[in-house]
Amino acid sequence: MIDDKSNPGSTDRQPAISAFNERLIAEGTWVFAGGLADTGTATVIDNRGEQAVFSDGPFVESKEYLAGIWVWEAPDLDAALKLAAEASEICDRKIEVRPFL
Questions:
Q1: Domain architecture of the chain: domains with CATH
Q2: pLDDT tens, residue by residue, 51-101
Q3: Which residues belong to any copy of the YCII-related domain (predicted)?
Q4: Distance between terminal CA atoms of the chain?
Q5: pTM summary value
Q6: How far apart, in Å, are the Cα atoms of 83 and each of 29, 64, 67, 96?
């Protein structure tokens, strides 16, 4: 789920999102989901050197950011895209679809 700082999605969508999740659970499609705190709460850790470096804020500054995640078990890409189109309407945000490895 992608939100946009300059044009955020509606904040009153939680009841509809909860109903959507309940339906997906009943259908056996839902694996898990969750929202993410604002990017201002992020801490980036780089421990590839001799010492860990901690930085406040998101790794990349962008007007669009990952606001939440759904993991679904869909039989194929077409089914996942259909769910994503429905989810985008329900949560009033863009949805990016990728396989979960």
A1: 2-91 (3.30.70.1060)
A2: 999 998 777 778 888 899 999 999 999 999 999 999 999 999 999 999 988
A3: 12-90
A4: 18
A5: 0.82
A6: 10, 21, 18, 11
In angstroms, what CA-CA distances link 95 with 10, 45, 52, 82, 90? 14, 27, 33, 11, 11
Of 31, 92, 99, 30, the closest CA to residue 67 belongs to 92
Q: Which of 78, 14, 79 is nearest to 1 (CA)?
A: 14
